[in-house]
C-alpha cells in the first residue's frame, strides 16, 4: 500500500508560468488525508518550506533537486557540494553566456536560463573532470553536484524513515523527476510531461499541469493504491 507520495512542484501542481493551480491545491489537501505528501523540487529550501506550510504537506521535503533535505521542523541537511557547482558555472560561463537565476536563496546548486546546448556543456564538464551535471527542468537548467538528484535524496529519506519502495508513489513532469521515478513503486506523469518521463510512468494523465495532477489523484484513489 502507498503511504508516501512524492510530488514535484513546477509544471505538476502549477501551470507553465509556475502559477499554482487552485484545483491542484484541493487535490493536495485530499492527498494529505490519504498519505504523507513530500514535496520534491528543484526550488530553493525556503520556497519549498513555504509551499509545505501553505499546502499542509510534510515538513520532510527535498529541495534544490536533492541537494537539500528538510527532516522536519528546522533540521536541514545538505547532500551536495556547492563548490562543485560554482566551479562548473565559472568554467561554463567562459563558453556560454550563462545568466544565473534566483541565486540569492540557493544553497547547493546553481540555476541558469536555458538556451544553450546542455548535452555539449555536460561533455565539456566531463572533459574538465568536474563532477557536476546539468538538468533541464523545463523551467531552468540546474548546475548540480553529479552525486545528488531527486532519486538519491528520496532514497535517503525512505531509508532513514524505513519506507519501502512499494510504499511510495511519485508525480512529476520533467527530466529532473526521472531519478525519483526510478526509486518508487508507482509513477505518474502529468499530460505535459516530457516523453522520457511518460515512458517510465505507470499512469499518464490526459490533462496537463494542475488539472492533470487532479486526474492522477483521482486515478490513485480509484486504483485503491493507499
Ligand atoms: O526548480 C525548477 O527548475 C523546477 O522545479 P520543479 O523541480 O518543482 O519542477
Ligand atoms: Mg517540474
TrEMBL record:
<keyword id="KW-0119">Carbohydrate metabolism</keyword>
<dbReference type="InterPro" id="IPR023214">
    <property type="entry name" value="HAD_sf"/>
</dbReference>
<keyword id="KW-0378">Hydrolase</keyword>
<dbReference type="GO" id="GO:0008967">
    <property type="term" value="F:phosphoglycolate phosphatase activity"/>
</dbReference>
<feature type="binding site">
    <location>
        <position position="10"/>
    </location>
    <ligand>
        <name>Mg(2+)</name>
    </ligand>
</feature>
<comment type="function">
    <text>Catalyzes the dephosphorylation of 2-phosphoglycolate.</text>
</comment>
<feature type="binding site">
    <location>
        <position position="177"/>
    </location>
    <ligand>
        <name>Mg(2+)</name>
    </ligand>
</feature>
<dbReference type="Pfam" id="PF08282">
    <property type="entry name" value="Hydrolase_3"/>
</dbReference>
<dbReference type="InterPro" id="IPR006382">
    <property type="entry name" value="PGPase"/>
</dbReference>
<feature type="binding site">
    <location>
        <position position="150"/>
    </location>
    <ligand>
        <name>substrate</name>
    </ligand>
</feature>
<dbReference type="InterPro" id="IPR036412">
    <property type="entry name" value="HAD-like_sf"/>
</dbReference>
<keyword id="KW-0479">Metal-binding</keyword>
<comment type="similarity">
    <text>Belongs to the archaeal SPP-like hydrolase family.</text>
</comment>
<feature type="active site" description="Nucleophile">
    <location>
        <position position="8"/>
    </location>
</feature>
<feature type="binding site">
    <location>
        <position position="173"/>
    </location>
    <ligand>
        <name>Mg(2+)</name>
    </ligand>
</feature>
<protein>
    <recommendedName>
        <fullName>Phosphoglycolate phosphatase</fullName>
        <ecNumber>3.1.3.18</ecNumber>
    </recommendedName>
</protein>
<keyword id="KW-0460">Magnesium</keyword>
<feature type="binding site">
    <location>
        <position position="8"/>
    </location>
    <ligand>
        <name>Mg(2+)</name>
    </ligand>
</feature>
Amino acid at each position: 500500500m502507498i503511504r508516501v507520495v512524492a510530488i514535484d512542484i513546477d509544471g505538476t501542481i502549477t501551470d507553465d508560468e509556475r502559477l499554482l493551480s487552485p484545483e491542484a491545491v484541493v487535490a493536495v489537501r485530499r492527498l494529505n488525508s490519504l498519505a504523507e505528501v513530500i514535496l520534491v523540487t528543484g526550488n530553493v529550501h525556503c520556497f519549498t518550506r513555504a509551499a509545505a506550510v501553505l499546502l499542509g504537506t510534510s515538513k520532510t521535503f527535498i529541495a534544490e533537486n536533492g541537494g537539500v533535505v528538510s527532516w522536519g521542523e528546522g533540521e536541514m541537511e545538505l547532500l551536495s557540494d556547492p563548490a562543485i557547482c560554482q566551479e562548473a558555472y565559472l568554467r561554463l560561463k567562459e563558453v556560454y553566456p550563462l545568466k544565473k537565476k534566483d541565486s540569492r536563496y540557493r544553497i547547493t546548486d546553481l540555476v541558469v536560463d536555458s538556451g544553450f546546448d546542455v548535452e555539449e556543456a555536460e561533455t565539456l564538464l566531463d572533459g574538465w573532470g568536474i563532477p557536476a551535471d546539468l538538468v533541464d527542468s523545463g523551467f531552468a537548467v540546474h548546475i548540480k553536484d553529479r552525486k545528488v538528484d531527486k532519486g538519491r535524496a528520496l532514497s535517503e529519506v525512505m531509508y532513514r524513515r524505513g519506507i519501502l519502495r512499494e510504499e511510495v508513489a511519485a508525480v512529476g513532469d520533467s527530466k529532473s523527476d526521472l531519478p525519483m521515478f526510478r526509486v518508487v513503486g508507482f509513477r505518474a506523469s502529468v499530460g505535459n510531461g516530457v516523453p522520457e518521463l511518460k515512458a517510465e510512468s505507470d499512469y499518464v494523465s490526459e490533462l496537463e499541469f494542475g488539472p492533470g495532477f487532479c486526474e492522477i489523484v483521482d486515478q490513485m484513489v480509484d486504483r485503491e493504491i493507499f
